[in-house]
Design brief:
The chain is an all-alpha fold. It is built from 18 helices and 3 strands. The chain has a domain at 440-495. The longest helix has 63 residues, at 410-472.
Length: 501
């Protein structure tokens, strides 16, 4: 009976995922607020049904009470997040909230499948991050000085990256994180945010050659420290954000082309300078050449991608445990094995929908500073998704980047939630500005109507006075006046005729 339920569940989970993904794109084309709210309600129902079925199936197979506790934690998180956003930020983008909750749910489920203790740690970090993130839109809305801290963002970012370079322990060939009281902090995840704020602050008003040159030097310092730390995947994320922000602010294709050429030269230089880069390129070219040692991770990931076929093996019916770092770098492979390739395609589309939503929000921002922040954070998110999935599928060499909101990692999920809350703050700010503009236009319209009414009243009063005066005048006087006028007209007419003759 359990096997039948598991077999049916994988198809139902797939249908729910397809439905949710379709709704996330469909809502982008809807302008009526009532229609959008109906879609959001459907998404919440789909999301709750998805979590209930997945955790129920996992509990049936493991009979572990922790699965029920984990489901209860996920349920409370989703309900509280939805409720608080509707209570505190009524103008927030619920589409972005729903996408975030769905991606987090997929992550909680796959982490519970792989190692339930990691799932509990992840949801604690997510809950804490979400609680902090509710303060960010308020700061963006009220604190206008955030636009004036340009060099503070640069100094903070460079200082944090330098601390990691000097004090971080080496992990998988790179200096990635610092351990403080048993907790690992990957500062580069948070510097991604300050880096974008610095770029936006520098290029919000001036985009001449000197300003771009100064900005490029400081950006190169960020990327250079990451290269020295051998964290090349994160360095690429930083560089792509820099490239897009410079292009959007200056609108000069020559800068983008120069940046791409620099990227090609830097990639070649990294290949010859760093041994682990050469190893990853060799594995990418032929992972089966040294399957048992160097190529083991990527080969197992490729097996996992295809093992479940289109519809997946079903939860606890596959072997994602055999994929090294399945909770970190190769989470996408574990999802593909048990949920199926079709489910993974929907996951990619959901990430694309999130990116398009961020771009849409950025294009609506009236202030250049906020517009550049939104597009910069959106690019960082999209590049991170591309690097993770591209490396797992052997489309590009593996970079060691985690899948945002899905993979296990406290610093990664915290920084991503903060990034999305910044986008929410910008969206709320834009909605408030639009509301203020509408209110001002309404007041102006009312003022114009009042002025026009007062003019009409004055003219009507004037006409009434004239009519009263005419009425009060004796009929004889008015008759004489009209008679004199008629006589003058007749004389003038006769004069014209005589002259013409």
């Amino acid at each position: 009976m359990v096997n039948v339920i598991v077999e049916l569940s994988k198809y139902i989970l797939l249908l729910l995922m397809i439905w949710f993904t379709m709704e996330s794109f469909l809502v982008l084309s809807k302008k009526k607020e009532s229609t959008r709210k109906n879609i959001f309600r459907k998404q919440i129902i789909i999301l709750l049904s998805f979590d209930l079925l997945a955790f129920f199936v996992m509990f049936l197979q493991t009979e572990d009470v922790k699965m029920i506790l984990m489901y209860g934690s996920v349920l409370l998180y989703i309900l509280f997040t939805q409720m608080l956003y509707r209570m505190i930020y009524k103008k927030a983008s619920m589409n972005l909230v729903n996408n975030m909750c769905m991606l987090l749910s997929v992550g909680f489920i796959i982490l519970s499948r792989l190692k339930i203790d990691n799932a509990f740690k992840q949801i604690q970090i997510v809950a804490l991050s979400t609680a902090v993130s509710f303060l960010i839109p308020v700061i963006i809305r009220k604190a206008k000085f955030v636009r004036d801290l340009t060099w503070a963002y640069a100094l903070i970012g460079l200082l944090l990256l330098a601390i990691v370079l000097v004090f971080a322990a080496r992990s998988r060939g790179a200096n990635l994180s610092i351990t403080i009281k048993g907790i690992n902090f990957q500062f580069s995840e948070f510097v991604k945010i300050t880096f974008v704020f610095f770029l936006a602050g520098m290029l919000q008003m001036k985009t001449d050659i000197r300003q771009v040159a100064v900005t490029s030097v400081v950006a190169a310092m960020h990327v250079g420290i990451l290269v020295l730390s051998k964290d090349l995947g994160t360095a690429l994320v930083f560089f792509m954000a820099y490239l897009v922000i410079v292009y959007v602010s200056t609108e000069k294709p020559s800068y983008a082309l120069a940046g791409l050429m620099a990227l090609v030269l830097a990639s070649v230089a990294a290949y010859f300078l760093f041994g682990h880069v050469r190893t990853r390129v060799e594995i990418w070219r032929d992972p089966f050449a040294d399957y048992k040692v160097k190529g083991y991770q990527i080969v197992q990931a490729l097996f996992g991608l295809t093992a479940g076929g289109w519809f997946g093996t079903g939860l606890f019916k596959g072997k994602p445990d055999t994929i090294p770092l399945a909770s970190y770098d190769f989470t996408f492979a574990a999802i593909s094995e048990e949920f199926g390739i079709l489910f993974s395609i929907c996951l990619i589309l959901l990430c694309m929908s999130t990116f398009l939503l961020i771009v849409n929000i950025s294009m609506k921002m009236s202030k250049n500073f906020y517009r550049l922040i939104a597009i910069g954070l959106g690019v960082e998110y999209a590049v991170q998704v591309f690097l993770t999935i591209g490396g797992t599928t052997k489309f590009i060499p593996m970079t060691g980047i985690t899948l945002p909101l899905v993979s296990y990692g406290g610093s990664s999920v915290m920084s991503t939630i903060i990034m999305l809350s910044i986008i929410q703050g910008l969206y709320v700010l834009r909605e408030d500005e639009e509301g203020e503009e509408l209110e001002e236009n309404r007041k102006k319209q009312i003022g114009k109507q009042k002025k026009s009414k007062s003019k009409k009243n004055k003219s009507n009063k004037g006409n009434n006075k004239n009519s009263k005066n005419n009425k009060n005048k004796p009929k004889g006087e008015s008759g004489k006046k009209h008679g004199a006028d008629d006589l003058e007209d007749k004389i003038a007419e006769q004069t014209k005729k005589s002259l013409h003759w």
